[in-house]
């Protein structure tokens, strides 16, 4: 699995249309608020031309791409954290996602109503962030109450934990996102992580623009870029309408269609690239006649840990990793040629897997 992405936004911003297009999960889309009444989950294969090239070289029996999971929840509205609308029912579903894709409407269309009467990206972002903050406050209040009860027993560490939750509460009450909370030590990092706060998750803003403006940027997109710059968030510009059209085309027709619109890649590819960058993820491959497989890991992961992402026994019994770079394989055309040119490397426990490494793990259990 690459990563799990929770999709949030106001009603009628194009969430379900985009979700349908990129996951083919069949979520209902309609021109009225709250048409999505259950969280929809879609899993999509990550397109990677390197995987196709490795398959051509090794001619495996099986090809396994990495995948992404998208979770689409009902449109949030002002007051959702207190039960208004349907979105509140599903906020808990995105507690465990790796990142949040915040879909923001950046197009005018009199035929598609806006829940607040007008298109205003800054206001819309503030509405969603406020609801997420309020939901996080509920979580922190519960943890604080529990910690304070335990602290009465006299345990210093529990008192420190309660003090930390109190500080988080104060931070959120000031309208600030949890990811900007100062964290002082290892315990505090663990306490913050275990809260699974919605406003502590990495965010990418997905600007849903009119299909005629998908290759350009207007004042709405520029406004969101200004917000993202301050928040260290990512920005992806797409048109849900264009993505819906792309999804209906045969794979061999999509590239030409996108190029005709002045686009180099689909919205899904943009979301994937920015998501990997946002979460500091890299891709490595295992390849042979039986299977070519893509694996996603955190950047900087040591070879034994990467082996463990395949199977725990690989990490426990790790001996060494035999490494070829994809660029060498691509250029020379075969594993034998890479070896003949002395370009296969043998790496030990301290080696950090690089993006594009083609790896064979030696282990003994």
Can you tell me about this structure?
This protein is of the alpha/beta class. It has 13 helices and twelve strands. It has helices at 15-23, 49-58, 121-151, 156-173, 186-195, 219-231, 240-248, 251-260, 267-278, 303-310, 312-316, 326-332, 335-340; strands spanning 4-8, 40-45, 62-64, 67-72, 99-106, 203-209, 234-238, 281-287, 291-298, 318-325, 345-347, 357-363. Helix 1 packs parallel to helix 7 (240-248) and helix 3 (121-151) runs antiparallel to helix 4 (156-173).
Low-confidence stretches: 30-37
Order of helices and strands: EHEHEEEHHHEHEHHHEEHHEHHEE
Roughly how many Å is the radius of gyration?
A: 23 Å
How much of the residues is beta strand, in percent?
15-25%
Structural class: alpha/beta
How many helix segments?
13
Distance between the termini: 25 Å
Q: How is the biggest beta sheet arranged?
A: 6 strands, mixed
The main sheet orders its strands as 2-4-1-5-6-7
Assign an overall shape.
Answer: flat
The residue-averaged pLDDT reads 87
Total strands: 12
Helix proportion range = 40-55%
